[in-house]
Amino acid sequence: MVAPEGIGPAAVIVAGETIEAVVPRDAAILDGLPVEDLGERVIMPGLVDTHVHINEPGRTDWEGYATATRAAAAGGVTTVVDMPLNCIPVTTSVAALAAKRQACAGKLSVDTGYWGGVIGQDDAELAALTKAGVLGAKAFLCPSGIDEFPSVDEAQLRRGMAVLAAAGLPLLAHAEIESPVEDDSMDPRTYASYLASRPERWELDAIELLIRLSRETGCAVHIVHLSAASAIPVIAQARAEGLGVSVETCPHYLSLAAESIAAGATHFKCAPPIREQANQDLLWRGLEDGHIDMVVSDHSPCTPALKQLERGDFGQAWGGIASLQLTLPLAWTAASARGVGLAQLYQWLSVAPAKLAGLEASKGRLAPGCDADLCVWDPDASLTVDGATMYMRHDLTPYQGQTLLGAVERTYLRGQLICEAGVPLGPPRGRELLRGRP
Fold it and tell me: Tell me: the pLDDT tens digits for 189-218?
C-alpha cells in the first residue's frame, strides 16, 4: 500500500465510494468484513492527470471523451482535467464550457474536470468562467497552433492573472516566447533542426515573465510541460521567495532523447521539443530535488495524417504525443532505472496534480475521507507497447514496440472496479469535477 503513512503491507477499508481507513494488514477491524487479498501487487491512489487534450466537441476525430477516458482507466488514471483546446469552441466562455459539458454527458469512464482558457477576453467574461466550475485557466505565450486560441501578450496576461488571483485559481501557462533563432534555413526533416528552432531561451524568457507577473498580481502560476532544464534555477529562486509557482514535466521529456530521434520521425514532435540526454538527466534531478512537482501526460493526439509521416517535415507536422494510457509504466520504467522509488512516484503522479487542481481533499491519496480511487499494478511485470491495443482513438505512438515495466492490473473508481487486465468494465461511471460543487 502506498499511503501517506508510508509504504508497506496494509489494508484499505472502503465504505461505499469513500476510503474509511487504512489499517495494518492483520488489524482486528477486518474480522467479519469481505476482504480481497491482492498479494504482492502495489495499491496506489488512482493517478491524477491534469494535462489532457480530449478535443471534444469539434475535433472528436482527433480524440473524444469515450476513448480518452477509457484509455485513462486502462492506465490506472482515475481523474483527468481537460485542456481548453483543441476543442471547438475553445473553453474560454461560460457558453463554451456548457457545450463541452453537454458533449461529455454519459461518456466519462473516469472523473473529469475542466481548465478554462485566457485569450485576452474581457475581464467580466473571464470572471464569469471562473465562477462556472473550471479549476483554473490556461494561456499560451506563443501561437497555440489553432486560430481559435490565440496567444496573449504581457498586458493581456497581467489582466487575466489579476482576474484569476481574485478567484483564487491558478494560471497554467505554455511557457515559450518566440524570438529569432540563429539559422532559419535548416533541413526540416532532421530533428536537430526542429530542436534548434525552439531553443531553451524561449522557455526561460517566458518563465521569467510569468514569475514577474505572479509577483505583481499574486496569481499562482503553473508551468506546463517543462522541457528546458536551464529554467530550474530561476524557478527554484521564485519558490524560495514564496511565490506560488508550480511545475510539471512529462514522460516524453523523461524517457526520450533528441539524439535518438530519426530524421522524418514526426510522430516524436511536440512543443516544447524533446531535448538532449544531458537535459533529461537534469530534469530528473529537478524532480528528485523537489523543483519540479509532478509528471503528467500532456496527452495531445491528432489524426495520423496531421503528423505527415510521408513528408517527414517537422516544421509542418502537428505537434503532440498521445500517451495517457502509458504514463505510469513510462514513468516507472525510467524512474526505477535511476533508483527512484514508489514514494516519489506517487507524489508526482497522484498527490501533486490533485493539489494543483484543488482536488486534494478527495483525490490523489489513500486516506480517510478520500474517494476510493485505486490503481493496482505490478512493478515487476513488463509490457510491450502496441498502439493498436490501446484505447485512445488513434494508434500512432512514438513508444510503439518499446518494452516497459509496470503493468496496471486493476483500476477502481470511487470503490467500483472499472478496469481489469487492461479491459474497461461496465458502463461509464465518471463524474464531472466542478469547482465549488460537490
Answer: 999 999 999 999 999 999 999 999 999 999
Cα distance from N-terminal residue to C-terminal residue, the chain: 28
Q: Which of 164, 58, 176, 166 is nearest to 121 (CA)?
A: 164
> Which among 96, 112, 226, 135 has a CA at the least distance from the CA of 173?
226
Grid cell for residue 220: 499562482
Strand, helix or coil for residue 220: coil
Q: What is the phi/psi pair of residue 147, to 5°?
A: -65, -30
Q: What is the pLDDT of residues 34-54, one digit of tens each?
A: 999 999 999 999 999 999 999
Cell of 347: 507524489
C-alpha angle 239-241-242 in degrees, rounded to nearest 5? 65
Q: Is residue 236 helix, strand or coil?
A: helix
How many residues does the structure list for the chain? 438
Sheet of strand 416-420: strand arrangement: 42-45, 374-384, 403-413, 416-420, 423-424
Helices 154-167 and 200-217 sit at what angle, rounded to 10 degrees?
50
CATH of 46-362+381-403, one of 3.30.1490.190, 2.40.240.10, 3.20.20.140, 1.10.760.10: 3.20.20.140
In the chain, the amino acid numbered 303 is: T
CB contact set of 168 (below 8 Å; sequence gap of 6+):
none
Helices and strands, number each (H, E), in the chain: 12, 19
Can you spell out the DSSP letters for 41-96? -EEEEPEEEEEE---TTT-TTT--HHHHHHHHHHTTEEEEEE-S-SSSS-S-SHHH
Q: What whole-number distance in Å separates Cα of residue 47 and Cα of residue 295?
A: 10
